[in-house]
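Hey all, sorry for the wall of text incoming. These are the two entities for the joint prediction.
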Amino acid sequence: SAVISQKPSRDICQRGTSLTIQCQVDSQVTMMFWYRQQPGQSLTLIATANQGSEATYESGFVIDKFPISRPNLTFSTLTVSNMSPEDSSIYLCSVDPTFHRTSSVGYTFGSGTRLTVV
Amino acid sequence: DAKTTQPNSMESNEEEPVHLPCNHSTISGTDYIHWYRQLPSQGPEYVIHGLTSNVNNRMASLAIAEDRKSSTLILHRATLRDAAVYYCILRDLGSQGNLIFGKGTKLSVKP
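and here's what came out:
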């Protein structure tokens, strides 16, 4: 299965600043996903990032706040912009490891970025 | 994607089997049943998935009801390292492909 390297693993940031989180996969994947997990909560999907097209955002998430890049089939970034303490969460990337989505397989998740905004 | 219903929490004793239930009464014919678990301070980890038939792998077994409206994740011998939140998720191949997480079941394992 795919192996994901997510960076940074944690950070403490000042309010009003931005943080870019990187997700590197060891193989080509078609679909990459970004999730947020607030303290004590389940995962909430932020957006889906396909290479060569604009990311698709879920309700409640906007591109100006969470811009996403997907320059190639092995890499993506999520930026948390103009941060406030409410953005303190764990941010995770995930991939569908099949290059050609012809069957259902298990997804792989990064270890997450624990963000604290002060 | 269809919704699933799981108990908020369950307890088990170490080295005993654990049966984690999941209800998905509105499942469609093209929905796969996925199970993931999240250990403390880690990202979710794939456990098992199935469509209609029961499935076994090195981590667990998945028992799927004949009408597919429910399923059970079976850990044959719980260990302390199995303490985690277990998520039952339906995924339709024809959809965007993302996984929609519910609240899951928090499994505690007692020594």
